[in-house]
Amino acid sequence: MTIEFNNVTPAPLAGVISSTTDIWQCTCAFEAAKRYRVVAPSGKGKSTFIHYIYGLRFDFTGKVRLNGVESSHFHANEWAEIRQDKISIVYQDLRLFLQLTALQNIQVKSALYPGNFDDRIHAMAEALQVSHLLNNKAHTLSYGERQRIAIIRSLIQPFEWILLDEPFSHLDLENSKRAATLIDSAVRERNAGLIVTSLGQDNQFNYDKEYQL
C-alpha cells in the first residue's frame, strides 16, 4: 500500500504552516515496505498527520490517498478492514482502556483474529519486561509501562504499515532499544512499512527517508 499526500493543509494550521515543511501543502509519497521518520517540534501536527493516514480526521483540504484512493472515499466498513488488516497504530495518547488489565487491553485486539495468541503475547511482554504486569489494571501502570503494552497491542495484528506516534517518549534508552528491536522484527516479518513521528531526538531505526513536518 502506497500512502500519498497531495497539497494537504490541515484546517487548524491554515495560514501558519512553515515554508520548510516537506508534507503540508506539498506532494509526497510513502512507499510500501519503506521506513520513514517524520520530525517536528510539538504542536506542528504530528498526531494530526498520523490521524489523517488512519482515517480518524478529515479536517483538511487537499488529498490523502491510500493505494490511489482518496481517504474520504472509503466507507466505515472499508476503514474497519484497513485498520484490522492493513494499518496498525500506536497512538501518542495510547488509548488504553484504563479499567481493563494490560492483558485484556491486548486481547481486545487479538480477539479480532482466529487462533490462540497467548504464547505470542507473553513472549512480547517478556521481551519488553512487562510480563509481570499483564494482570494489573492499566490505570495502575506508569506511562512508560502503558506505552509498552500499547506497542504489544499494535504488533498482534497483521499490517502493511505501522504508524508510531512518538512511541518511545516515556521510555529510557534501554527500553526504547528493546521496543525498537521487537517492532523491527515484526516489520521485517511482514515486509511492512514504518512511519515514526519524532521530535528528532531518537534514532532507533534505519530510515529510508526523513520528512520535516
From TrEMBL:
Pfam families: ABC_tran (PF00005). The keyword ATP-binding applies. InterPro entries: ABC_transporter-like_ATP-bd (IPR003439), ABC_transporter-like_CS (IPR017871), ABC_transpr_LolD-like (IPR015854), P-loop_NTPase (IPR027417). One of its GO terms (molecular function) is ATP hydrolysis activity. Coiled coil: none annotated. PANTHER family: IMPORT ATP-BINDING PROTEIN, LIPOPROTEIN-RELEASING SYSTEM ATP-BINDING PROTEIN LOLD. This is ABC transporter. It comes from Pseudochryseolinea flava.
